[in-house]
Amino acid sequence: MNSLTCPITISFLEKGSTVNSANYCELLRQVKKDIKNKRRGHQSKGVILHHDNARPHTAAQTVQTINELGWELLPHPPYSPDLAPSDFHLFGPLKAFTRGTKFESDDEVKSVVSDWLRHQSKDFYAEGIRKLVHRWEKCVTVLGDYVEKLKKVSFYLY
Questions:
Q1: Would you tell me how many other CB atoms lie within 10 Å of the CB of residue 97?
Q2: What is the H or E stretch that residue 52 is in?
Q3: For residue 71, how many other CB atoms are within 10 A of its CB?
Q4: Could you say which of 15, 36, 46, 124 would form a disulfide bridge with 120 (CB–CB 3.0 to 4.6 Å)?
Q5: Cβ-based neighbours of 97, under 8 Å, separated by 6 or more
Q6: How many alpha carbons fall within 13 Å on the CB side of residue 59?
Q7: Domains of the chain by range and CATH?
Q8: Count of CB atoms within 10 A of residue 28's CB?
Q9: Residues 78/54, Cβ–Cβ less than 8 Å
Q10: Which parts of the chain fold into alpha helices (H)?
Q11: What are the pLDDT digits (tens) for 40-56?
């Protein structure tokens, strides 16, 4: 199995709910189960988790859960939404896929989104990780400034 691949865990909150540390920790535990089921015979150690700095992700309960799971946490620079793979790699193509679609129900939205996520190739997800590495390198180049600004700025190294 390619080291950049991982099972897809899809979870939707109930209408009116928000992500909090408790439900995020439960999702992380589900991800561990999904990894274990998908990679039978392999340990679910060696997982490197990347998420942004939203409050539920940085809460003490979440940090404790990540430690209990034995996962490494890839630090996320503050105020860097341009480094969140969901923002720069998933949502754009998903938005393009659903553009112009009128959904009749929340269940239809869940079904379409789930199907779309499941039908993306392993290469699609691996490319998101490769893009993340490239974006991190850009972030270092601009000393932590917003990565998208690089499109407008030229750099000369002496």
A1: 13
A2: none
A3: 19
A4: 124
A5: 116
A6: 14
A7: 1-76 (3.30.420.10), 77-158 (no CATH)
A8: 20
A9: no
A10: 21-38, 55-58, 60-69, 85, 91-98, 106-118, 122-141
A11: 766 556 788 888 888 99
User: Whole-angstrom Cα distance, residue 60 to residue 67?
Assistant: 11
- Give me Rg for the CA atoms of the chain: 17
What whole-number distance in Å separates Cα of residue 79 and Cα of residue 108?
Answer: 33
Does the pTM surpass 0.85? The reply is no
Sequence-separated (6 or more) residues with CB below 8 Å from residue 128 = 85, 89, 90
CA end-to-end span of the chain, whole Å? Answer: 42
Query: In the chain, which stretches have pLDDT less than 50?
Result: 1-2, 149-158
Chain centre to alpha carbon of residue 63: 17
Q: Are 49 and 29 in contact (CB under 8 A)?
A: no
> Tokens 């993306």 map to which residue?
120
Q: What residues form DSSP beta bridges with 72? A: 48
